[in-house]
Design brief:
GO molecular function, one term: amino acid transmembrane transporter activity
Keywords: Cell membrane, Membrane, Transmembrane, Transmembrane helix
Mean pLDDT: 76
Protein name: Threonine/homoserine/homoserine lactone efflux protein
Order of helices and strands: HHHHHHHH
Structural class: mainly alpha
Number of helices: 8
Distance between the termini: 18 Å
Pfam family, one: LysE
Radius of gyration: 18 Å
InterPro entries: LeuE-type (IPR001123)
Strand content: under 5%
Helix content: over 70%
């Protein structure tokens, strides 16, 4: 298995967790209101959803590859378009008002588990992110590589969780987030658009019969 493929899976898992989204924003709210322990419990429960959606995404990607490159290319194009759409939506975000109440969760572990397993954006974002970062190594994607890809992805999830847990709950983080929320959301939009461009760049030659060597 190529090093590029492993690095791509690791970065996809890392990005999937760190790029601001519903879970990221929920974690910031919990961490700001209840501290790092509650935030860690939330992320521990949410990890189940991360593993589930990334597994389904990788199975879909590998399955598409084994069936034929055309399906994989179309999948990449669709996912690239989806990433571009959510990125553009983030870029157009507008302030929602000040003095929002901090989130209070009685059972953060259960909340994280339910949130992770029912998040409607979990699968499409995982599929889009993994497709964007694995498209350049499409020829190496086989079902035999799935266990290693999942293991590397799990490491990425855990490292991302540790990073988030290490910074949440601090007053300086809370103040910074409240002061720069719009900028953070828009920067995340730029990252999504960057992933979209990468996905489309890698699949376009195959769709138009100009596959790069």
């Amino acid at each position: 298995m190529s090093e590029t493929l492993l690095v791509g899976a690791f970065l996809a898992a890392l990005s999937y967790t760190l790029i601001p989204g519903p879970a990221f924003l929920a974690l910031l709210g919990i961490g700001a209101g209840q501290g790092r322990k509650a935030g860690a419990l939330f992320m521990g429960g949410h990890l189940a959803g991360d593993i589930l959606w990334s597994t389904l995404a990788l199975v879909a990607i590998v399955g598409a590859r084994s069936i034929g490159t055309a399906i994989f290319d179309i999948l990449g194009l669709i996912c690239g378009a989806y990433l571009a759409w959510i990125g553009w939506t983030a870029l157009k975000a507008r302030p929602r008002g000040d003095n929002r109440a901090l989130m209070t969760v009685e059972r953060p572990l259960r909340r994280g588990l339910i949130f992770g397993l029912t998040n409607p954006k979990g699968y499409p974002v995982a599929l889009a992110t993994f497709t964007a970062l694995l498209a350049s190594s499409a020829n190496a994607l086989e079902f035999e590589a799935l266990p290693m890809l999942l293991a590397v992805s799990l490491i990425g999830f855990l490292i991302a969780d540790v990073i988030l847990i290490a910074i949440i709950g601090a007053s300086v983080v809370r103040r910074f987030y409240r002061r720069h929320e719009l900028t953070i959301v828009r920067l995340s939009g730029l990252l999504f658009i960057g992933f979209a461009a990468q996905a489309i760049w890698h699949v376009a030659p195959g769709l138009f019969g100009m596959r790069r060597a």
